[in-house]
Design brief:
Layout lengths: L5 H6 L3 H5 L19 E8 L3 H12 L5 E4 L16 E2 L3 H6 L6 H11 L6 H20 L19 E2 L7 H13 L3 E3 L3 E9 L2 E10 L5 E12 L8 H7 L18 H7 L36
Parallel strand pairs: 1-2, 1-8, 2-5
Antiparallel strand pairs: 3-4, 6-7, 7-8
Helix pairs in contact: 3-7, 5-6
The chain binds flavin-adenine dinucleotide.
The site of flavin-adenine dinucleotide (FAD) has 32 residues, from helix 3 and strand 6.
Length: 304
């Protein structure tokens, strides 16, 4: 390969470059859609973490039938289930009781400031304007948050909701039974290795290929939509280093499932990426030691 600056390397969309690094062995590039499919769903969701399960629940509440989730691990939950579960949102009920003045506008301003102004303001606005609706949506399904909000590590204001029971797994304990109730089919041990568009590099995304628990390759056609909710790539050192070479040898608190498998697959069929070098690092355990120092829960207890 000729000399490439890091910037021109990251800016490239050549599939050869992007797939030559960090692809799990059985993953391969985009191909023509099959003539005959093994399975059909109306909505295909890839990944059964918090985002994937929430997508399926919301879709079923909005009338979508025949929803299939493909999950590569033998269990659902992903990183969401091991996360701290802290959820920033304005909250007229809890914050009023604690005498905290807040607004979605202040939340947006502080979110942008917390990310050194690099986030997309429109997306931030969408998140902060709708976060309390999401809190209520979860609560209506049985999610319990503690009575008081607090300031989480990385947040700039006391508006973080702490799950009442066992941190991030609380979300899964609420969302998974909702999926079951709605008849959402969840296939675990089913790793997606390919995405299909109507044509190789144009048209809608219409399906995927996965490897099932016995190693068989199967295809699924999605009549309405494919949603990719496969989380991040914190547990993939090569992919981390591709976007920020300093990250190669860091340890991670992520589950081993966070390997970013779908990112090169989506790039192969024409997707672009943004913000790939925004990699959050928490101070973890000192080198050679095993205990995790939980700094992200209560910022006020620590001097940074
Ligand atoms: C220790 C820790 C603490 C955290 N604390 C907080 C916190 O307090 N607050 C907060 O907001 N965030 C926190 N986070 C971040 C948060 O956990 C993630 O941003 C969030 O869980 C991402 O949800 P997700 O559904 O997108 O991904 P995940 O929950 O990781 O789900 C992705 C799923 O996709 C599956 N998958 C991946 N590849 C494939 C494939 N090829 N085929 C099929 N399935 C696939 C994975 O196995 C996984 O189950 C924390 C993270 C960690 C690691």
């Amino acid at each position: 390969m000729s000399k490439l600056s890091r910037r021109s390397f990251l800016g490239s969309t050549a599939a050869g470059l992007l797939t030559s690094i960090a692809l799990p062995s059985a993953v391969h590039a985009a191909d023509a859609a099959p003539q005959k499919w093994d399975q059909t769903a109306d909505l295909l969701v890839i990944g059964a973490g918090g985002a994937g399960l929430a997508t399926a629940v919301s879709a079923s509440q909005n009338g979508v039938k025949n929803i299939l989730i493909l999950e590569k691990m033998p269990f659902v939950g992903g990183n969401t289930s091991i996360s701290g579960g802290g959820f920033n949102s304005v909250d007229p009920v809890r914050q009023k009781k604690q005498n905290i003045q807040d607004s979605p506008e202040l939340h947006a301003k502080q979110t942008l400031a917390g990310g050194d102004g690099r986030a997309n303001p429109e997306l931030v606005k969408t998140m902060t304007a709708n976060s309390y609706e999401a809190v209520k949506w979860l609560q209506d399904m049985g999610m319990k948050f503690k009575d008081d909000v607090y300031q989480i590590y990385g947040g700039l204001y006391p508006r973080c909701h702490a799950p009442f029971g066992s941190l991030g797994s609380d979300y899964i304990k609420v969302l998974k039974p909702q999926c079951d109730k709605a008849g959402v089919q969840i296939l675990t041990n089913s790793r997606v290795v390919r995405l299909f568009r109507e044509n190789q590099l144009s048209g809608k995304v219409i399906g995927a290929e996965y490897v099932d628990k016995d190693g068989n390759h199967k295809t699924v056609k999605a009549n309405k939509a494919v949603v990719v909710a496969t989380g991040g790539y914190g547990a993939n050192p090569q992919m981390r280093a591709k976007y920020d070479p300093r990250m190669l040898n860091l340890t991670t608190t992520n589950l081993p499932c966070s390997t970013g498998d779908l990112i090169p697959l989506m790039q192969d069929i024409g997707a672009d990426t943004v913000g790939m070098d925004f990699i959050q690092c928490n101070p973890g355990c000192p080198p050679g030691r095993k205990q995790r120092i939980i700094l992200h829960l209560y910022a006020k207890n620590f001097i940074m």
